[in-house]
Amino acid sequence: RAGMVSLHFVNSSGGGIMVAPHGGSERRLSANPLAAGAPGPDGRPIVLDMATGAIAEGSLMLAIDRGERIAPGLILDGAGRPTTDPADFYGGQAAGKPPGAILPFGGHKGFGLSLFCEILAGALSGGGSGHPANPTAGRFVNNMLSIVIAPAALEPASGYHEDVARLAAWIKSARPSEEGKNVLLPGEKGWRIRDERKVAGIPLNPVTCRKLAETAQRLNVSLPDFLATSECTAEARARL
Q: Residue 108 to residues 22, 28, 98, 112: CA-CA distances in angstroms?
């Protein structure tokens, strides 16, 4: 919105280590996200925000809450074997199972990007990369390297906005791979969901409602107002 183009690299240490390197079977890297933002057409930014792991930990938690399996090729269990059970990522202390690991997306390509997140966000920034000798290895710490560019400072006559608008229109003119679908720019789906949920609210599954209710009870606070309009309110209230 400020008219800048930006690129961001992030790493974490300690509690953030959850991804195996390509060819490995144990946790060595964090989700190591990278992001980019640019002024886009129609006043809405084009935003890329992606982890270098094949799946977000939040998606694993949601799959567990829903009692669902995940697609193959995303995680390993504690023995380093491929699995589709999201619970294998967490192992089980009672059962003596070690935790599993998330795989990097795209094999060696995602691993390479993740490694450079460590180098750029961790080592180069001075915050340190995610290894046991890092002073912050015992806790969750994020480091970030951001590069921000003013298009006009590089070439005032470049016509940045016009060119990006033409590029976006050209990309979105591609024939969709599925009937009734549209080609979306990075971040566009998120804007659509945001617009919808500002009107219709945020859907919550029953397990999430139960956890909110249990947390409210533990902290001796009333249920938040938004929970009163969710479909699982009755179940949540029944547990208070």
A: 5, 14, 25, 6
Asked if residues 141 and 15 have their Cβ atoms less than 8 Å apart, the reply is no
3-state helix, strand, coil split of the chain in percent (to 5) is 40, 15, 45
- 96: tokens are 């003596």
**Angle, CA 61 vertex, CA 91 and CA 110 arms, to 5°:** 85
Alpha carbon distances (Å) from 228 to 150, 211, 225? 45, 15, 6
Q: Does the reported pTM lie above 0.90? A: no
Rounded CA-CA distance 65/58 in Å is 11
Distance of CA 31 to CAs 12, 46, 159, 200, Å? 8, 22, 36, 31
Tens-digit pLDDT profile for residues 154-171: 866 678 888 999 999 999
Other CB atoms within 10 A of residue 123 CB:
16
Distance CA 38, CA 91 (A): 40
